[in-house]
Design goal:
It contains twelve helices and eight strands. By secondary structure, the protein is an alpha/beta fold.
Length: about 260
């Protein structure tokens, strides 16, 4: 599938589920949002960019700490939905439809950039990383938060297949080593990082993107038929034949230009 079609699929998926992403607890209430502000330590004179804003949760968390923030997203409907929910509380936000791999901004524009729980949809992460580096000022900060795959090839394949079954617009959850290689190739300097297990309530997680009962069943089958090594790694919890929850890996990494 070519990049154009991949991005069309992403736009279609997020247009259909825009309100769900605004309401999603894992997106709206993650403790990484407050931690993000602590790590970035933003200056009130700074200009920020929130790349692939989704429901606007990063923009909401940062807007009171910076001078101006640009909320960008590939999907116009997602931007409009985020704006609707943020307009009453955030008055320093510009909403711009933008491709993370080709940002419509001049070099050295922003003091900080954030991309949260979105990069696994990007078909060319190397272009995304290069673009973030380009639009940041020297010394600018870049915070990436995203689901990541384990280094083990079997576990990597399992979780990426799982995500693709649940959400056809999923591209790839990269490993931490893959991300760090991309950061080094664009001359980013790592400041600090943390990786953790994030828990999903299965019924909520699968219903956010699945559109048919057949699709839900495919996801369930993939989880139920996993071997013990996979079930233990992802803490897949099954009771009375019903999947209750699972864990995925998430990386939070702060970089500097």
């Amino acid at each position: 599938m070519d990049d154009h079609q991949i991005k069309k699929d992403v736009q279609r998926q997020f247009s259909q589920n825009a309100e769900k992403y605004v309401a999603s607890e894992s997106h709206a209430k993650g403790d990484d949002l407050s931690l993000m502000v602590d790590w970035l330590d933003p200056n009130p004179d700074w200009m920020a960019i929130d790349i692939a804003t989704g429901g606007g949760h990063v923009t909401k968390a940062l807007s009171s700490h910076v001078s101006t923030i640009f909320a960008t997203d590939l999907t116009n409907q997602m931007l409009a939905t985020a704006k609707k929910h943020l307009d009453s509380t955030c008055n320093n936000v510009w909403y711009v439809q933008a491709d993370a791999e080709s940002l419509p901004f001049l070099d050295s524009t922003f003091d900080l950039a954030v991309c949260r729980i979105a990069a696994h949809h990007f078909p060319n992460p190397e272009l995304f990383v290069q673009e973030v580096h380009r639009v940041l000022k020297p010394g600018g900060k870049f915070l990436l938060i995203d689901n990541v795959a384990p280094d083990d090839k079997g576990l990597d394949q399992f979780v990426n297949t799982l995500e693709k079954l649940r959400d056809p617009s999923h591209g790839r959850s990269y490993t931490i080593n893959e991300w760090k290689k991309l950061f080094r190739s664009s001359s980013f300097i790592e400041v600090r990082s943390s990786n953790r297990k994030k828990t999903y309530s299965f019924p909520v997680w699968v219903s956010r993107t699945a559109t048919t009962e057949e699709q839900v069943q495919e996801v369930q089958n993939h989880l139920c038929l996993a071997n013990d090594t996979v079930k233990n790694y992802f803490a897949i919890t099954i009771e009375d034949g019903q999947i209750l929850s699972l864990h995925v890996d998430e990386l939070m990494i702060l970089l500097e230009k």
